[in-house]
Amino acid sequence: MAFQPLTVQDRILLHLMDYQNFSDKYEVPAQVTQRGIGEAIEIAWSNVPRAMKKLVTDGLVEEKSARIKGDKRKKKAYFLTHKGYSQALTLKQDLASRTLVMVDGEAHKEIAVGDLARETGLSFAFLSFVMKIGTDGKFDVARAKAVGATPAGVVEAIEGAPVVKNFVGRDSELSQLLSVVGSNQVAVVWGVAGVGKSTLAAKSVEPLRGKRSIWYARLRTWSNLGGVLLPFARFLGKLRRTKLLHYLSSTKQPAVGDLAPILKEDFEGIDAVASRQIKDLLHSFVARGGTVFLTSHILEIVERLSTHIGVIADGRIVAQGRIEEVRAGAQGKGTLEELFIELVGGERPAADLDWL
Questions:
Q1: What average pLDDT score do residues 95-102 get?
Q2: Which of 185, 263, 309, 329 is deepest in the core (most CB within 10 A)?
């Protein structure tokens, strides 16, 4: 059962509905300011003014100047009008009546959206519950609880990470990969297509949750600059690093030369200048204390970007360490191609082409 994501307007209406009782107060919570609204509905706060202007014009929201709790200055605050509250209530009732599949471990149960709080025991706002429902109509209880338990200062953006159901006999690989975390390195998981690189990367996210900030992105050959940068900018914005958000909100067409370049899974089709900028971007991130996991079967990318590598063959890591160390242990093979062939078991016979 598909579940259509809420529009920005719908999210704002549902969010402000929870703060309507402050509409006649002298001091109001930060959640009704532009920044508070942006954080609650997960959009760049610098884009909130445009959305609010439309809602005010449509008579759904009113703008006031109010004293904000914990802030000495007055700021713009927003509350629903009678028309806006009525529309928000209708929307909430409609959403509450819809059905979804609640996933709790191995159990799957079909329930109404309005019953999520009672069934899960979680004390989220209604909007928060709805925003955690996947487009496939499923609400993952374990994932929702983990997000709710994330300590202050730790941000997670792992919606794109697939749920790994089967991960048998690969604990040693996972342990080796996780050993890179905290060492401020770029780690590349290297292997042929279909060997399980993405599964290993996705699995590595689980033990890190709640301990450090995570941004998981699955980049495709058709990924464009905006599609990559905006989610990353939102992630950084939650960490109170808003320069990228500010840039994206001030330009209609981001330029590769201005900031983070477009990233693609295989870096195919990127010119030499952009490729160098990608390298500089990743190593700059590492220099500031970050760790990068990168999976690829393009040997040139591995050599250009990584400091540490792990080579997968037959579902297990057959070599791991700094590139020069792995190369030194592979019987003197020179190129990465020769090194890879040596590690995975030697030369493979050419395919029989008699059928042509």
A1: 94
A2: 309
